[in-house]
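=== How it folds ===
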Amino acid sequence: MKYVKIKSAVLLTLLLSSVACKKNLDDLYQNPDGYSRSQANNSGVSVIAGFFTSQLSQGFFLTGDYGATYHQVRSGNRTIASSMQAYNVMSEGSAKALADVEHDWGTGGFNETVFNFVNTQWITPILWAQHEFNSSTKRTKLDSLYINLMHVLKGFAYQRATDLYDKVPYIETGSAGGLDGIKAKYLGQSDIYPKIINDYKVAEAALVSLTLSSTEQASFTQQDILLGGSILQWRKYINSLRLRAAMNVSEVMPQLTSQVLTELQGKPLLSAYNDEAGVSDVTLIALNRICNELGITRAYRERVDDCRAGKKFLQDVMNVTPTQTSKVVNGQTLQYFSGENSAAGLVAGTVDPRVSYIFAPDWSGRYIGLDTKWDGNTDPNSYLNKALRGMYINDPILTDINKTTFYYGVNNSQSIALDAASKADLTKREAFLLTNLRSRLANYDDNQGNVGTENPLIAELNIRPEFNFAAKYPTIHAVETELSLAEAAVRGLGPVSGTATQHYKNAIILSCKYWYNLNINNQYSKSTLPALPTTMDDSRINNRPAMEYNAAAYADFAASKFDAMSSQQKVQAIFDQLQLHYQLFNFEVPYTAARRLIKYVGTNPAAMYERYKWKERMTYPSSVQASDPDGWAIISPSNNPDLPVWLTGRTTKWKNALE
């Protein structure tokens, strides 16, 4: 089935104005680049069914998108640092000066993507389906089902857009907008959230007693590429979206949050490790175009800069603790990391199993990452220096004047030749080697600018789950639902079945299972279609976890720490699990959670680079000023990345170390 692809400018005009000429409407509806009634007739399904499937197929809606993902990984990762860019925390990489993501070359792709999509591709099939449904005199049970589910998808689209921008052009549920002569209105979060929360409630209620004949079920299963035609899964999805929305407004509408939590009691929610709403690249994209052209993995491959592991997750969240040792060199006591505790801890249940599922160690087998704090190399025993010093501190090159080349890496494949001064003077060698390794790391010389090579100096993201082309883009997952319930219980936001600790443990167990399966079930290689990049080393491609570690045992260990925390610390820990779980797949949910939790936690719960400004919202495309002057007058006063959005309950920008 063709996607609905109507020109952005045309649809934005339809959203923001009425259509007076029926001939133009008919011409647009029968656009050869769109999905038309004749195509539906030829395919043997109703036009509304076609629009439903078309909606599920939209780029960056329930699946990834190379361009959008690229910019969210690049600039979004500088905002909340789900993984690390080495050169942005080292003096060898860049200067310690305040920078932002607002005025660099990626601004448009980062700021404008969701706004443009929600006003074009994301809303197009919904409006056409609604127009067809409103004018139809022969509505079938399936047509009513598809329209009901498209109201849910409309709510999801607007939730994503309003989270980032606050005010967006909004069309009431049941309206086909400009197609029926109704102008969209700019509404903000305070208006949109109650509407979509109610839309979710109405949509789920309609499914409770719905029954389909075998023929109807077969047709629905064929059309539903998201949840396989399962009414139960749709109910779980809708209820979990409603829970997300209720948690997002908890700072400003706690009574609504409490009402939703009450009404969700006893209703099905996403609860299994494979309960997620998303579509994989291989479902929609020609296999030969995934890695090199259109898939989200192209974004990861081109953003190798962002694929280093972070100290926050490995050490502070997942309990990988480096073994610190000291040695006197040239009369100075130097500290270094001689190893870490992951090997024993994974088996004992004291280290998070996801360490071996999500991350890959450095060439020597250590899971040691990078800190977000700036390392200007003024402290010889900084975290970074201790990590790199462990590579050479016990090598004979520091004590044998005749040894002039330091070898490291797998099978000693990498080398550093001493300069003339260091060759002649043992006292200069330690500083020379440290400086050289820092430079190699900052310039990505250790991995030649490619993810998945065998000699990284710092742990990085594991390519097996990240480059699993069959991975569904997790727009929402059961782990988030469990964490939302845990937070609601901690903060007393409303009735929750089970304790905060139980939901926290459930989230960890589900996330471990999810990432283990993404890793272990990756069947792709350099010779498959799609193929993994030839720059990846086979040892990394084939490096599956040694076993599936006991997630329940680790969850019990993590829960014991959780129980000893204050309420604010618990909410921070819940956020950490959310950000850890979504990783590079989903920037928007942790970003919204970080902004709304600043007020409660008392600081920014995200892992922030010291040198990047915090960004409170996305800014609008400048083109809106010309295309919709009236709308621009409404939104321009809030078109400021330093202005917190309504749902945060704040009016003052959070500032990091250099701001």
